[in-house]
Specification:
The structure holds two protein chains of two kinds. By secondary structure, chain A is mainly alpha-helical. In chain A, 46% of the residues lie in helices and 0% in strands. The longest helix of chain A is centred in the middle third of the chain and has 28 residues, at 55-82. The radius of gyration of chain A is 66 Å and the shape is elongated. By secondary structure, chain B is mostly helical. Chain B contains seven helices and no strands. The longest helix of chain B is centred in the middle third of the chain and has 29 residues, at 77-105. The model of chain B is unreliable at 1-20 and 109-119 (pLDDT under 50). Classes of the chains: A mainly alpha, B mainly alpha. Chains A and B meet through helix 2 and helix 3 of A and helix 1, helix 2, helix 4, helix 5 and helix 7 of B.
């Protein structure tokens, strides 16, 4: 890839004058001095800023953080011992027991009451009745239901009356 | 320990006992600063930094460069310094953007109007720099960087691609757009000057 012509060299006069004006700007002389001073004060590449081998200096540097660390650990342990009983919970924590699962009693089976059954059919023969007149001693079959019983009793009463009447008329 | 008196004086380098670089290394540092400080500082100015900010960033650039002397290839110091300068300037511009842009944008063309209508050549360098900075301030940062490196610092597109860590095609595109924008601005300025 070839580089295109630069406006710096091939632009219009006005464009070139604008671009070349940049060269006239220079940093101040003091900047160079400041930068050189800063470089001199800064540690050089590969140079350890803290020179090793000064055992006394290293010891003095390490003494203070070690003392602070020891003090901090002591405070933590002492505080923990002093506050230990107070830190116990006032209440016993609820014991967690494993309850056996509640057994469900099987529901008692409800026996359904047997429906009242109608009384068995009672066959009453009218001629078997002691009070039955001979005319009414025809064989009658009736059902011995409650209704039939009532009917039988009513019939019996009628038979009695009719037999009493017939007796009166014969006399 | 003090470096060679021909290159360095005690006034130039007030060294402490804790940080005394070897003689050759100190000489190399001084040579680096004296050779490249003006171009690095100008590059920072064209990127939009104010003179005071450019001073601070330039010093930081050389501090970084000195720490990485061992990875800096001989003969490629300029590219290395410009790469460091670009990164630090981008970071500095983020914090100083409003201040820098405000100053650039308020440069009025009427301030440099000359009574002579054909005064292209008479346009003073300072006034021309004002117009140049105004034209550059209208570009996007990436286009501005590529344009400044190519047109003002005369770097090749390959060097710019390596420095900005972008593809050569992208650099070519940015340079082309930068040139278009610069020519448009120059035409506009010239029309208003007449």
């Amino acid at each position: 890839m070839s580089d295109p012509e630069r406006l710096f060299d091939h632009g219009s006069p006005f464009e070139r004058s604008l671009l070349r004006s940049s060269e006239s700007e220079e940093p101040s002389r003091r900047l160079e001095e400041k930068v050189l001073a800063a470089l001199a004060a800064a540690p050089a590449a590969g140079v350890d800023p803290a020179p090793a081998g000064d055992a006394a200096g290293d010891g003095a540097r390490l003494l203070r953080p070690m003392m602070l660390a020891t003090l901090a650990v002591g405070l933590l342990v002492g505080g923990g011992i002093a506050l230990g009983p107070r830190l116990r919970p006032a209440r016993r924590p609820p014991e967690i027991t494993r309850r056996p699962p509640r057994r469900r009693r099987p529901r008692p089976l409800r026996r359904r009451r047997p429906r009242r059954r109608a009384p068995d059919v009672l066959i009453v023969r009218l001629d078997a009745l002691p009070s039955a007149p001979p005319a009414a001693r025809a064989a009658v079959v009736a059902r011995a239901t409650s209704t039939a019983t009532t009917a039988t009793l009513a019939l019996r009463r009628r038979l009695r009356r009719s037999s009493a009447r017939s007796r009166c008329s014969t006399r | 320990m003090v470096a060679s008196p021909s290159l360095l004086t005690a006034h130039d380098l007030p060294m402490t006992a804790a940080a005394v670089p070897p003689k050759d290394e100190a000489a190399r540092q001084v040579a680096l600063v004296r050779t490249h400080l003006p171009s690095v500082w100008r590059f920072l100015r064209r990127l939009g930094l104010q003179p005071d900010d450019a001073d601070d960033v330039a010093q930081e650039v050389f501090l970084v460069a000195v720490r990485k002397m061992d990875v800096m290839e001989a003969g490629h110091e300029r590219s290395f310094l410009f790469g460091v300068a670009l990164r630090i300037a981008m970071r500095a511009r983020r914090t100083q953007k409003s201040r820098a842009d405000r100053t650039d944008a308020h440069f009025e063309i009427d301030d440099v109007r000359s009574p002579d209508p054909s005064s292209d050549e008479l346009l003073s360098r300072k006034e021309a720099r004002g117009l140049l900075d105004k034209a550059l301030s209208e570009m996007k940062p990436e286009i501005r960087t590529a344009f400044v490196l190519y047109e003002l610092e005369q770097m090749t597109m390959i060097e710019i691609a390596a420095l900005t860590e972008t593809a050569p095609g992208t650099v070519a595109s940015r340079i082309r757009r930068g040139r278009e924008q610069f020519q448009s601005a120059a035409t506009r300025f010239q029309a208003r000057l007449r």
